[in-house]
Amino acid sequence: MHSYEVEIKSLLGSKERTEQVRDAMQKADPTCILTSRNKQLNHYFADGRLDALEKIVSQRLSEGARMRFHDIAQKAKEFSVRTREKDGKVLLVVKASVGDDTSANGISRIEFEEEIPLTLDALDKMILESG
């Protein structure tokens, strides 16, 4: 099964503004805590076919992840692919629109994010080889 998330993004502009937002959240809910900090590097890919990518990365995925990826490949009307290195972990990210909006910022979309036991360069190469 897929999980659903509500994501709100805002350009805060400065470290001071970030602290103001955190303080306001803490005031609104004293149990609100910062759970992590991280740095990440994203590589974005254009074009290609999701079914071709599915074939080449399936061997690197768990059974559950393979099933989720297959479901997305079947339902996607439009998709975007990226790789991410986040705190030493390499991730494959696919965002797929399932409605009439885009995969980039649509309201109805499915997201796949899974750690892949490869280097970022090796995963990038695998994606490029899939077309």
Give a description of the structure.
The chain is α+β, with helices and mostly antiparallel strands and 131 residues long. The protein is 34% helix and 24% strand. It has helices spanning 15-28, 50-57, 63-75, 120-129, and strands at 40-45, 78-86, 89-97, 109-115. A 4-stranded antiparallel beta sheet has the order 1-2-3-4, with helices on one face. Strand 2 and strand 3 (89-97) form a beta hairpin. The longest helix has 14 residues, at 15-28. It is elongated. The mean pLDDT is 85.
How many helices does DSSP assign?
4
Count all strands and give the number: 4
**If strands are numbered along the chain, what order do they take across the biggest sheet?**
1-2-3-4
State the order of secondary-structure elements, H for helix, E for strand.
Answer: HEHHEEEH
Based on Cα principal axes, name the global outline.
Answer: elongated
